[in-house]
Hints:
The complex is a heterodimer. Chain A is mainly β.
Amino acid sequence: MSEPRSSRRADRNAAAPGRRAGGGGRRRVDVVVALAIALPVVVAIGMGSIGSGPDTAAHGGSPTLTGLTSASLTCPGPAGKQAEPVVVARAPRVAGGPVTVRSSGSGTRLTSSKQVTATPSSPASFAGPGPTVLDAEGASAPGLVAGRREPAAAAACSVPSYDQWYVGLGASAINDSVLVLTNPDPGQAVVDTELFGTNGPISADQLRGIVVPSHGVVTVDLAKKVPTRATFAAHVQVSRGRVGVSVEHRYDRLGGAKVVSDYVPALDGASTDQSLVGAPSQTKSLLLANPGNNEARATVRVLTSSSVFTPTGTQPVVVPPQSVVRVSMGHVVPPSAAKGMLGLVVDSDHPVLATTRGMVGGDMSMVGASPTITGPTGAVVPDGPTKLVMAGAARAGVVDLTATDAKGHTLLSNKSVDVAPGRGVSVQLPKGAAVVTLDPRNTSIQASLVTLAKDASSVVPIRDTVVHAEVPAIRPH
Amino acid sequence: MSASNGAGVPGPQVSVLLVSHDGSSWLNPVLAGIAAQTAPVASVVAVDTGSTDGSADLVEQALGAGRIPAAVLRADSGTSFPQAVAHAATALSENGHHPEWLWILHDDANPDPSALAELLAAAEENPQADILGPKLREWPSLKRLLELGVTISGTGRRETGLEHGEYDQGQHDQVREVLAVNTAGMLIRRTTFEELGGFDEQLPMFGNDIDLGWRAASAGHTTLVVPRAIVFHGEAAHRGVRRTALTGRHTHFQERRAALYTLLANCRGGWLPFQALRLAIGSLIRMVGFLLVRSAGEALDELAAVGSVLSRPGQILAARRRRREAAAGRAPDRERLRRLLAPWWLPYRHGLDFLTDLVAAATNQAADVAERRRLAAAERDPAPVVARHREGEEFEDTGWIVRFFTSPVAIVIALIVLALVVGARSAFGNISGGALSPAPTGRGTWWALHLESWHAIGFGSSVPAPPYVAPLAVLGSIFGPGFTMSLLLIGSAPAALWGAWRFLRVVARLISPHGASTWLLLWASTTYALVPLVAGAWGSGRWGVVVAAALLPWMGHAALGFADPDAERRWRATWRAGLLLALLTAFAPMMWWFFLLLAAVVLGVAAAVVRSVIRDRSVWGPPVAALGLPLLLLAPWWLPSLWKGASAGVLLDIGRWPTPSTDGLSLIAGRFGDVGAPLWLGLILPVLALVALIPRSTRIGVVVCWLVAAVAAVLAVPMAHISIELPGLSHQQPGLGALILVMGGAWLTAIVLGSVALREVVLAKVVQAAVAVCGIAAIVVPVVGLGWFAVGGGNQLQAGPSNGVPVFMQQQAESGDQYGILVLRGDVAKGLDYQVIRGDGPTVGEDEIEALTPADPKVHTLLQALVTAPSAAAVQDLSDRGIRYIVQPAPADGSIAQRLDATSGLERASTANRETRAWEIVHQPPASSVEGPHDWPRIILLVVQLVAVVVVVVLALPQIRRSRQ
């Protein structure tokens, strides 16, 4: 609407050239010239002052923490013949309280129910013969820690998970893996399992849609379901409900020798950078699984108390997509490099999963990538001489340790251990220690309990204990 | 009364019946015409119906002095035409005159001297003819044809079969059978007249000729029009020049009433109810049409006529009975009637013509502002003005096909439009992407969205629908929502091209009498049409900017009316400009703020320079009123937005947010981030606009264009720094898309004006070279831009992407708003997005409502409880809020799924994708769960809007009077 009005003046000028003759006309031209310069400058300055502005992407949100009001743990049944009891303990600085314990015995349903009281100062124990479920409500929920102390196949009780990997399974007469699925809830649960072998995915439709009835326990012997001589990895997803999954691997040398077994470590997912804290050098093989669609190249480094190094003369391991590769331990850790080894570090260009498997001290032992501990936690210590190995510190920090025996007597009080990136620490726990608590300060850490007794060995990874509930940040789409 | 029987005169006997009323100003030539007839007239009977101007005396004198036996009857002023004629016929027979023919004339019907002779000759040639009529030409202009026989259409329109104002060049000169002939000059056999019972007295003034013809045809009589016989007719009554007690002031009422009466009295018996219904509906439609062209009087006449006829069914039935009795059992001559009545499609053809005229008039309204200003200037200073060169005028009489193929500009335009359509090809389907949501499926969706106080969107919202929903609803009712969106997306660029062409042509003429060359206009309008496309507005789904680009030049065109020298025309421009500004604001709300600032600056400058501007209300009033109109027309949107906490919408571009921010360089180059054509291409325009400042003769105009651009820039600065917080978004930049259009348009106008200067000067060689360089750079802009868009500019939009919700849930959701689907995306660690899908999902018009609805803390708490510690109570609460399903599309966070699996009141639902988790809430949500309170203030505003839209649209439309003036 501006053009016409001004142009009207222009018209008037054009139509009546003589009317504005004289000084007025001259000054007018000056104004126009001044505007012709000023207006583009205004535009330039205006536009120049507009920056690109902050990105309008929606703000993601990390969860906020709130009090945990309900906690459940599922514990695998005892591997050996002796029914080692479940020890129920607590992470540091929680109240503790009553815990309901349900066990299936040798049946397929969680039946017997009992209440125990566990506090940080006094652990409790429960002689559950089969898979066992612990439930704690209200103030008792935070910081629940439990496990069996069986040194040959020690197992920590874990939070029911919905998506986990297990590497190094077998389904033959010699190497056989058994899935034990425990449903703690009144509703039906469904588990889907996919297998990846050395030659790619293994067809296993019978492992899809396994129904775990209400409060039921389902045992799946893979040698019976999907007999194969291959070593493989399993991706276990709970598509419905909650299920506690444990996988026991049995090694039967046939010909009358004792059958040895261990629990296969549950892996949260593939990663390009993982530490197998407590992996022994004398074990037989390292198994790498690649769930992705790209070939991965993994470099294996040795963790010691002073450094993490790549042994000379070793080559990166190539892991084909959707496949498992087994490499001899001697191949990636030559004997010359094995001295003082506290674990392995596996780096890869694409995410892989890693687990070691082999006989250590006459017993089967499997070690997987260690989860990261970010807060105070605890673990049940297997019966026998045990070392606490820590590594993978994000930065230099201190971990406060306590250890108590099964009755709650303090054996180690607030021992501070310095940790730092790029090196491991090994702490021999006092004899008789049944519960250990860790409180990392200023850093996150990865830790395992390494037990080496007569004809029994085990490595128990230590996980964060659930102390808080995480409330996700919620926003409209 | 004295008369002779005219014995001894050879040939058939003819008596003239002359009816007069206040016709002294015409009568003398008419009487002379009768006297001058070459064929013998046996007698003349004149009937005067109570004239007050001495007509009767005039007739008496003239006839008394003549050689033809004559009688003058004086009737009172309430005598109708049928009565007068009947009176005269009776008088003839009472006096023992039994002529073979009666020749009826009006006091304003002047017969050519040979008229009667020709009629009689034709009657002799065609002995079967009982009624004959002359060719009626306009009196006093004499050359224009009025009637050559008439018929009536199914809607009661008097059909002459002639173009309006057609000149008589002998093109219709053959004797042919017609339904009826006008009573002015009608030659009718006396026996036939008596057999038919004369004219129907229910038709006092108008339409009695058609009725008589219809009855005659029905009875098997032949009516002929004889073009060689000519009568000049003043049509005094029809034009309202003569007002009698019978016509009153409302001639249109009388004419319509007569037409309706004729149709109902003569139509086939079985069709009577259908015909009555059809006429009633048709009259209502015609009434709306009259209102649209602001002929309120005729609209009321229309209504009154149909009311008058239909409210007296007895009159119609009596008339039908009389016709049956007159027929005396003879079957009507249906074959003849079918041949002579107008074909059924004729009314629709007229409707189409009317619409075409209306559109043409509407688009031409401001076109001659430049011409009128020049004329006004010439009046002030009568120095010789350079004659405007009118291109294409010499071709005006050739057909459009010839014109098209002989005009390179037309062919290039066609190719450009083709390329634009090719570039927008993906919009032929239902597409979405970026800021564009899919179109709704139901025609009523947009109406509901616009009218309802409470929307079943998300967890319910009382935020008013965005302003563009109302126009979309109107379009969607006609074309369907999907096609409407396709039409807008595909048609906007050609519409922008057309609008820019018209706008720039007028602006160029304002600055120079020669105007701009068509090639320059073509370059500029094409470049303008491409501004939103190369900016990436199309590709990123900012469809509001695309539509605004099409409206902006038309709005500018209308606003040129503010510069009209005539104050009344300036006021009239208010309605058009205000209406278009309201539409523009509906699709790009920032436009209103821009024009507000622009008006303030321009009026401020004008007031400073020319004091009189402040005093003359007709100068500053129209633009101010035009700015106020959008506030009124869009009141149901912006006012409730304020009190519903959704006021951010008045600053944002429409569509789905978030959209990426735009920085200063992108604004100058006219780009939305990286989605548009190459950035360098956009920088050519501002550089050329700078160069356009150099020519002195057009510098003022170019400076004004830069002023417009500067106002846009000044507005952009604060807007770009405002960060609007929306629920779920960190922030959103206000909509700067409109300013890209304004700046692009301002620079293009500047370049056109600068180029116009080149036509008038002789350039030095160096300057010529520089101009050539600029010209090449200028050509690159539309050529590359058009190529870029045609090849792949619109690729980012695609047919509706999957939202991961199982199909059966989607189907149930479409069956009722209360079957909402709560979709949870993301995980605990990184945060969760929630969305409620109702009906056919988020569609055009709903995004803004959902995004602007203030977050409900109760819902937030409920959902947090649901994903952390779900309980049966939380599930029930969801059901009460109209949620039927919960879906976690893949990849689903298993920890949340675990908890929901363990919650009573939820049942797992099957999904096609194993990774997707879905639950059904056992308790069915009640329909009341998505109902909300009525917002009475908004409902009042909706009524105000409706009234205002009707009034403004009627005021904005041009006046078309299709009468014979």
